[in-house]
Design a protein that fits this description.
The protein is built from ten helices and ten strands. It is an alpha/beta fold. The strands form two sheets. The chain has an eight-stranded mixed β-sheet with strand order 1-2-4-3-5-6-9-10, sandwiched between helices. It has a two-stranded antiparallel ribbon with strand order 7-8.
């Protein structure tokens, strides 16, 4: 496939990277990846849509070829700010957004905060933990949750990125993470997701601090749902039936959107846009056409 061009933009004094698939005269589309991922995970989706949309796919702060945040400020509001800056600086509104996991959560928050700038949004498992999981988390008193996060973050402070002796070793780890990946997909994701260290070994590009997220002081579940309710654009929620994510129709979360529908994709896990690309694109095409 013919790849995109690389570019930089700035947000909160961070140098952030994005790729651009061209077609400036077409409607704008933003592809937002998930946690510990990178912008080139969208290449197969972009290939299918680049003739109809001007596609931009950013590396979130601390991911891919974007700069790491000093102090590890990886809460969702900072991510949302970065996306808001990209849409503003590149004059992308009204923009169609396709986003996955952490990116889906960010995109939904952005769409509720700036509804006038969003045409349509597809969120692949971007609703976060299920209501049952949240209930179990809330069973732990807030002081214990905050203290536990601090202690865990302290323990992780000296953690060094894992090193792989060869690129093939990193590739094996990629395939272990998602059994649905073809050899071609796994190699592509590894080539763009890993970097060679000075000693010849390989490590993943993302900042280890992204694993800790923003801590327990972020937006509450109630705040997130209130923001979802402000979204005016049509929403397509996508879920792989083999994923850990719960069904938003069964758990009731889809009711927090004014205009949303759900696509459950069989034989797909958390990365349904990789696991069942043709089926995923079928749902996307139908959604974009309406």
């Amino acid at each position: 496939m013919q790849g995109p061009t690389s570019h930089l933009y700035y947000s909160q004094r961070l140098r952030l990277h994005y790729v651009d698939w061209g077609s400036d005269d077409k409607p704008a589309m933003l592809l937002v990846h998930g946690g510990r991922d990178h912008c080139r995970n969208w290449d197969w989706v972009a290939e299918r849509l680049k003739d109809r949309y001007h596609i931009i796919a950013p590396d979130l702060r601390g991911h891919g070829d974007s700069e790491w945040a000093l102090g590890g400020s990886y809460n969702e509001v900072n991510y949302v700010y970065d996306i808001a800056q990209l849409v503003l600086q590149k004059r992308m509104a009204p923009v169609t957004i396709v986003a996955h996991s952490l990116g889906g959560s960010i995109a939904l928050l952005y769409s509720g905060l700036f509804p006038e700038t969003v045409a349509k949004i597809v969120a692949i498992e971007g609703l976060g933990p299920s209501p049952d999981m949240m209930e179990r988390m809330r069973a732990t008193p807030i002081e214990q949750r905050v203290r536990g996060w601090i202690e865990h973050k302290r323990e992780s402070a000296g953690r060094l990125p894992k090193k792989y002796a060869t690129l093939e070793d990193a590739l094996a780890r990629m395939k272990d993470e998602n059994k649905h990946l073809s050899d071609e997909q796994a190699r592509h994701l590894t080539l763009h997701g890993a970097i060679q260290n000075e000693d010849g070994t390989y490590s993943w590009k993302f900042d280890n601090a992204v694993r800790m997220g923003g801590g327990p002081g972020g937006l509450s579940t109630e705040d997130q749902r209130r923001i979802w309710e402000k979204i005016t654009a049509p929403v397509l929620l996508v879920r792989g039936t083999e994923s850990w994510a719960s069904d938003p129709e069964k758990d009731g979360r889809i009711t927090h959107f004014k205009n949303a529908r759900l696509a459950n994709i069989e034989q797909a896990g958390h990365w349904s846009h990789h696991d069942q690309l043709d089926v995923f694109m079928g749902h996307i095409e139908d959604f974009l056409a309406t």
